[in-house]
Design a protein that fits this description.
By secondary structure, the protein is of the alpha/beta class. The chain has a single domain, classed as Rossmann fold, CATH 3.40.50.720. About 45% of the residues lie in helices and about 15% in strands. β4, α4 and β5 form a beta-alpha-beta unit. It is globular, with a radius of gyration of 17 Å.
Length: about 120
């Protein structure tokens, strides 16, 4: 089973993910929040999922790189400097960075696709 480590585990997305881990056929390696040690979590996890804060990104990426642990970054509000850090980490480990993976955004995108398909190319606002 894949062991998932959640960074930002007390937040809304972290809690939702922790609740879903058993349904994914995975195990929860653990979770940390501000002040937690991402290096310890990275040693215990097969993959890290980061829903923390931009200020924690550099430390989280360093921990993932140190252990060779793949990381999914769902943290929003990243600056160009943060994206440079992500690009550098991706040269060493598997990194997936996405701006928003919340249910609301996913649902909204689906509804927009359905509306566009039903209204057709001739419809305009």
């Amino acid at each position: 089973m894949t062991a998932i480590g959640i960074i930002g585990s007390a937040g809304r997305m972290g809690q939702a993910l922790a609740a879903a881990v058993p349904d994914l056929g995975a195990t929860l390696a653990g979770g940390i929040d501000a002040g937690g040690d991402p290096a310890t979590l990275a040693h215990e996890a097969d993959v890290l999922i980061d829903f923390s804060a931009p200020s924690a990104l550099e430390r989280n990426l360093a921990a993932a790189r140190l252990t060779g642990t793949p990381i999914l970054i769902g943290t929003t509000g990243l600056s160009p400097t943060h994206h440079t850090l992500v690009d550098a980490a991706a040269s060493d480990i598997a990194v997936l960075q996405t701006g928003n993976v919340s249910l609301g955004v996913t649902l909204l995108a689906k509804l927009v696709r359905e509306a566009a398909a039903r209204l057709g190319p001739d419809w305009d606002i």
